[in-house]
Amino acid sequence: MARVILEIDTRLYRLLKSSAETHHVSLEEECCRRLEGTERRSHYLQALLAELRAEDEQRRAKSG
Fold first, then answer.
1. Which terminus of the chain has a lower count of CB atoms within 10 Å, N or C?
2. What is d(CA 42, CA 38) in angstroms, rounded to the nearest whole number?
């Protein structure tokens, strides 16, 4: 399993954690919920997702 280390804004992390607690879900579930569009779209999460997808595509290109 690949290990991913993320650097995130402390304020954003606290807001996401608070929202997760409010909705009685895990932090991961809260992030996924927001990415799926059930909550207001987060530009930060969209950029993060785009970056992760680009890295994955580069890794696949090098492997194959």
1. N
2. 11
SS3 44: helix
Q: Dump pLDDT digits (tens) for 6-58.
A: 787 888 889 888 988 998 998 888 888 887 775 556 677 777 778 878 888 88
Which DSSP letter does residue 1 get?
-
**pTM given for the model:** 0.48
Q: What are phi and psi of 38, to 5 degrees?
A: -75, -10
Three-class DSSP category at 20: helix
CA angle centred on 21, ends 19 and 26, rounded to 5°? 95
- Distance, in Å, from the CA atom of 15 to the CA atom of 59, rounded to the nearest integer, reads 32
